[in-house]
Amino acid sequence: MPTKPFALLASRSEDVAADDEYASFLAHTGLRPEELVRIRMESGPFAPLDLEAYSGVLLGGSPYTASIPAAHKSDEQLRVEAELSQVLTEIHERDFPFLGLCYGVGALGRLTGAVIDSTYAEQTAAVEIGLTDAGREDPLLSGLPPSFAAYVGHKEACTVLPPGAVLLATSAACPVQMFRLGTNQYVTQFHPELDRAAMVTRIDVYRNSGYFPAEEADQVIVRISRADVSDSHRLLRTFVERYRTAL
């Protein structure tokens, strides 16, 4: 039966990182290219977005830091943020199927009243993610074990949840690793789309972007290579299976 595609909202201006991110989403959702429409937000206007054309919306990670003052943001970032807020406002009002990874915490969180700052910034690493009681009962996480490894590496995180949010996952160094709003809006701090090869590409592309000392990139690769993050990928496939909608 024909189904509506999913939309992937992306914002990486570096083609190597952007293409590798898209490949990661395809690999771990199980979608074909025609089933996952990539929208590169940084390349030009993308809003309004016709949500009726899609089964759900995925938001990839981003080099943007949501919590810095507007005066320190580029014109590109300010435009993307304004248009993305327009799209997310509709998603939130409709409780439309949404999964935002990394940047989703800052984008949807700030829109709905969360506190996003650098209190729980994370080094680039693989960490142990633990599901809360609510997480263990959530249908999107039903295929995951109570704890699993996933990749992180962020300059900001959620310090205070937005009103009405349900905390689904946490970690020792970052209390908010995943939350849900409504029934169908999910965001993660961790990166379920990244496997080791994709993480190595990300480290190489962003080695001079302040996530870690550039001269320590090889050490970071050794550190992240010790972990098995395969369980984290299930989240993406479950999202697709749950929300795939017939034409």
TrEMBL record:
PANTHER family for the chain: GLUTAMINE AMIDOTRANSFERASE YLR126C-RELATED
Protein name stated in the entry: Glutamine amidotransferase
GO cellular component, one term: cytosol
UniProt keyword annotation of Hydrolase present: no
Alphabetical list of PROSITE patterns matching this protein: GATASE_TYPE_1
Pfam families: GATase
Keywords assigned by UniProt, alphabetized: Glutamine amidotransferase, Transferase
Domain of life of the native organism: Bacteria
Domain Glutamine amidotransferase span(s) in chain numbering: 54-195
GO molecular function, one term: transferase activity
